[in-house]
Write a structure and sequence with these properties.
Elements (H helix, E strand, L loop, with lengths): L2 E3 L11 E3 L14 E3 L24 E3 L12 E7 L8 E6 L4 E5 L9 E2 L12 E3 L8 E3 L1 E2 L6 E3 L7 E7 L2 E5 L5 E5 L3 E4 L15 H6 L58 E3 L4
Antiparallel strand pairs: 1-2, 3-4, 5-6, 5-8, 6-7, 9-16, 10-13, 10-16, 11-12, 13-14, 14-15, 15-17
Length: about 280
């Protein structure tokens, strides 16, 4: 798990810093655990563009990840660590004693040959999934469920980890990587350990073309457009909104910085004890 810097033989290589993929042990996915990933180009079911800047890129297949960890009490052996083009973390191919194979999000330090298990009686070690009420406060956790049986929804990106700060009654207090402190039911499952691939934040793609390979197209700034194309377009020189100051907004006039998008009366507001740090 490290980074590879390149000699500046070309202008783009001068800034290129990529993962060396030293932790990856298998370079072709398990075909039965993948499905076709269809292209949208940012368009919805009616053919209308709803997400700009999407298109092109290398063909990919989606890896089916076991976020639920529902095989209780059955040990599984780690067969391989793989690259996943759909997420920043690495994934681990595990094989259960009954022969079934599944993918899980690979925590830091997980190696081929190790054994992982899920269930309330599992050992408190990295890669094992347990109910939150069975995990000791202060231990790093990831892949956290919000609703029992739905599967992990929180803390799944590279290098992420949350912490249990307190346990009282049916609920457990969890501090998330964003700084948000939240109540989650003690029966919800979480996986012990920090998500792997911590060097992901230091990767520098080096050139615009590598972004295109990932399916990301360039987008021109609103201020660089004409008034007909964007609320912040036009004006003499670099001005926001055709001469006068205009708060940054989307092409459809929605506030782009700091605008509230969460419903005021959402049911889960009662479970958020402290908002994320701004």
């Amino acid at each position: 798990m490290g980074l590879h810097k390149y000699r500046p033989l070309t202008p783009s290589l001068r800034w290129t810093v990529l993962s060396d993929f030293s932790e990856v042990t298998k370079h072709h996915p398990e075909r039965k655990l993948t499905v076709a990933k269809r292209r949208t180009g940012g368009r919805n079911m009616y053919g209308r563009m709803t997400s700009r800047g999407i298109g092109g890129g290398h063909k990919q297949r989606y890896r089916l990840i076991d976020f639920k960890r529902e095989k209780i009490g059955v040990p599984a052996k780690v067969e391989a660590i793989e690259y996943d083009p759909n997420r920043s973390a690495r994934i681990a191919l595990v094989q259960y004693q009954d022969g079934e194979k599944r993918y899980i999000v690979a925590p830091q330090g997980l190696e081929v040959g190790q054994t992982v298990m899920s269930g309330p009686d599992a050992e408190l070690k990295s890669g094992n999934a347990l109910p939150l009420k069975k995990i000791l406060p202060g231990m790093p956790i990831h892949n956290i469920e919000l609703h029992r049986g739905k599967g992990g929804q929180l803390v799944r990106s590279a290098a992420m980890a949350a912490q249990i700060t307190a346990s009282e009654g049916e609920y457990v207090t969890v501090k998330l990587p964003s700084g948000e402190v939240r109540l989650i039911h003690g029966d919800c499952y979480a996986t012990i350990g920090q998500v792997g691939n911590p060097d992901h934040i230091n990767v520098s793609l080096g050139k615009a073309g590598r972004n295109r390979w990932l399916g990301r197209r360039g987008i021109s700034r609103g201020m660089a457009r004409n008034p007909v194309d964007h609320p912040m377009g036009g004006g003499q020189g670099k001005s926001k909104g055709g001469g006068g100051w205009h708060h940054p907004v989307s092409p459809w006039g929605k506030l782009a910085k700091g605008g509230k998008t969460r419903r005021k009366k959402k049911y889960s507001n009662a479970f958020i004890l402290e908002r994320r740090k701004k």
